[in-house]
Amino acid sequence: MKNSSRLFLFAGLMTALPALAQENAVSEQFSQTLLTIAIVLGILASLYVFVLSIRMGGGAVAGTLLLYGFGMLSVVVSLLSVTWLKATMGGYAGIAHDMFFIIGFILMVLGSRKVSRLIS
């Protein structure tokens, strides 16, 4: 199976899955499961990017990967603040979510700018 057909199959499954969760309790459990998967994948992806950056041994591309890694990790922390840490953070969970989300995207934009400077 080619990569494009695998991607199409995956995208089709991800769009069909919410339609399968019709009841409220099932929908809530399904939502929590997807969120947990997103958090775990985000942590693993960030760690992988950090490992790649360390293997490069420095330089402009390694610095770019560090920015991407910290950006992705910041987005994961924003997800954690509104899910698992919401009970301990109280009313500050929403503020922490928004701040870490914004910081994550800013870091990834800075990484993209660094890549564009390397290419031009």
Describe the structure.
The protein has 120 residues and is mostly helical. The chain has one domain. Helix content is 88%, strand content 0%. It has 5 helices and no strands. Helix 3 packs antiparallel against helix 5. The N and C termini lie far apart (36 Å).
Number of helices: 5
- Quickly count the domains: 1
Please report the total strand number as a whole number.
Answer: 0
Strand content: under 5%
Rg, nearest Å: 18 Å
Q: Assign the structural class, choosing from mainly alpha, mainly beta, alpha/beta, alpha+beta, or little secondary structure.
A: mainly alpha
Which overall shape is indicated by the principal axes computed on the Cα atoms?
globular
Low-confidence segments: none
* Mean pLDDT, all residues: 81
List keywords for this structure.
mainly alpha, 120 residues, globular
Task: Give a brief rundown of this model.
The chain has 120 residues and is an all-alpha fold. The protein has helices at residues 3-20, 24-56, 60-82, 86-89, 92-119.
Any chance you could write out the topology, listing elements then pairs?
Elements: H1 3-20, H2 24-56, H3 60-82, H4 86-89, H5 92-119
